[in-house]
């Protein structure tokens, strides 16, 4: 017979076991959303929910929320057993450190009604004070109407993020520029970012019906950087993207990644991208990148990192000087060169960042004058455009 | 000049503003006198006072009403900056007759490198002669510190006032300098004092004997300088030109009444920006760093700065950045004083502007000129044709400091 008093005191509000590998993986994911510098104390915790079909972990900093699900079993392997469904919030930092260091392959977690949480693994036993899961904010509820869903292959999404997020603004002067703007229309996803000194644009085809249309979706650069880290290299897998008025949800197998969207109208950048060209050159991406890297060795300490480019008959000259260090010249061969002669100054840093995100071997650069933006496009890939504003030197 | 055996004087005029007033109004002599701003403009803070006033407890930065409580017979005069500047010029003219190696630090203090002079006259005799001369011709008292470098000379002149004459030799440090509290060290402000005290450094001697590396870790390069100075090492030359080199241009304004009104703030910044832009233009320089200071009603100050990719040249640029800093850092409390300071200068001719996607079209007004210059340069070689602004290079802009092209008396 059970001792009634004892059972009352230790009445369980949750009990489950989970494999260590799965739990560590999940914790690692949701930790990406947890910030130690949050104004809402409960958000320093991870919410753990044990339900009949598995365990869900949630982390959030109120801008980004990540939900990671561990199903009862996968590929004939048992991940989780749930003896009593329930939920608890545990201090994220401590919990994540503990689960990583636990000695056995299975971890048992039980929570009593006073929110005291016992974590046992092998002969090790931790008792943690939990936080009230009722206080944990609810994640945005997103209506899954079918026409809302956009599907993008994981590796393509990673590329798109890598090629645009670097150009977002880090200054809060115009908050909307700290995000990447997405437009979806006619089966195409059009992503633009700019900090007003350079601009990156990537357009990719996506599988949607022609009806799907979104405008002015501005995703914080910070969120996309976190998402990029979570996306693994299992490239063919599709990511489902669901967009609402102020939230975007990326759904990958067993993982939901929510991000707040930035408010405000993203400027119409299409009008600002020159369509003509006064001087056009085609040359090797790496050849130009490396020449600028070398020239920047002297420009690094100078304000605005200025390097100069000067066109010749069959080459362009890259030069840079520093009053203190000295100067450097380098001739870079080109494949073709057309149009007016040109001498232009620009930031080595901005140009290197753009060039290093282009995978194609050859690029075309269209200049429209020494004081106007120039546009870099990879040959053989219409979908990418990098624009850079020059530096005025006198 | 024989290096390693320098003899440096630090001349420190005693209670300068008050002394000048007394020199010009002999009837004030022997009375407690204070110089303070106008009370109506809320600038009623004691700037300096005579020794008679100090004896009653009157101190610099004390409000006038408080000084009057301590010393009811106190005579308060408003500062006459024009007179002080003129007098200052006379003082330095006298000093420059001894040696051209005179560095003016402010209206009332300066360094002299007399190494080459002391071979003919003993330093103490020379110092006495200078002191006597200043007193006889201008009726102004001063203290002189004599030492092998600037730092020790400065510390020495502070040791005896008024009309003091103090020699500080390196071998005397353990018995003189090292016993002084760290807060008395030249270059140690209240913030640094706090940090040093936390490291258990309470006297200049504590600092001299402290671990150099740990000082460097906690306080960086400025800490190393202090450490060297505490040990009596200082190789900074006496620089006669330093007076003409400026690190910053700034303006600050005490408001007639505390305000939370943004239009008032903007008006104040606007006036300041205009003055600063005028000066930038006169000097043909551009600035890459702006800072603003906000003093709240309770005298707490905040200073915030921003480094820019696009140089500040015009009033509009300066005002825009100042307002932006203000909006970002103001905590809605009533403001008493506002100020803007620009630093990190570049000759306009050498300045570079990272163009902006949303505003580059405004810059295009200059494009025809740029095209023309490029065309002529290509045909006739470099510098065949230049903008006038790029030819004004005679003034030295170095390490973000500039040398003024006029000898101003500001």
What keywords describe this structure?
heterodimer, A: alpha+beta, eight-stranded antiparallel beta sheet, 7 helices, 18% helix, B: five-stranded mixed beta sheet, four-stranded antiparallel beta sheet
Distance between the termini of chain B: 32 Å
Instruction: Tally the beta strands of chain B.
Output: 16
Biggest interface, chains and residue tallies: A-B, 29 and 27 residues
Radius of gyration of chain A: 26 Å
Structural class of chain B: alpha+beta
**What is the residue-averaged pLDDT of chain A?**
90
Low-pLDDT stretches of chain A are 1-8
Order of adjacent strands in the largest pleated sheet of chain B: 5-6-1-7-8
Residue-averaged pLDDT of chain B: 87
**Amount of helix of chain A:** 10-25%
User: Main sheet of chain A, how many strands, which sense, barrel?
Assistant: 9 strands, antiparallel
Rounded to the nearest angstrom, the distance between the terminal CA atoms of chain A is 92 Å
Subcellular location (chain B): Cytoplasm
Site (Substrate discrimination) (chain B): 17
Protein name (chain B): DNA polymerase IV
Keywords (chain B): Cytoplasm, DNA damage, DNA repair, DNA replication, DNA-binding, DNA-directed DNA polymerase, Magnesium, Metal-binding, Mutator protein, Nucleotidyltransferase, Transferase
Structure notes:
The complex is a heterodimer of chains A (394) and B (410). Chain A has 394 residues and is of the alpha+beta class. Helix content of chain A is 18%, strand content 43%. A nine-stranded antiparallel β-sheet of chain A has the order 16-13-14-15-28-27-26-20-24. In chain A, a hairpin with a 3-residue loop joins strand 17 and strand 18. The longest helix of chain A has 15 residues. Chain B is α+β, with helices and mostly antiparallel strands. Chain B has a five-stranded mixed β-sheet with strand order 5-6-1-7-8. The longest helix of chain B has 22 residues. The model of chain B has no long low-confidence stretch (mean pLDDT 87). Chain B: This is DNA polymerase IV. Chain B: It is found in: Cytoplasm. Chain B: InterPro entries: DNA/RNA_pol_sf, DNA_pol_Y-fam_lit_finger_sf, DNA_pol_Y-fam_little_finger, DNA_polymerase-Y, DNApol_IV, PolY_HhH_motif, Rev_trsase/Diguanyl_cyclase, UmuC. Chain B: One of its GO terms (molecular function) is DNA-directed DNA polymerase activity. Chain B: Its EC number is 2.7.7.7.
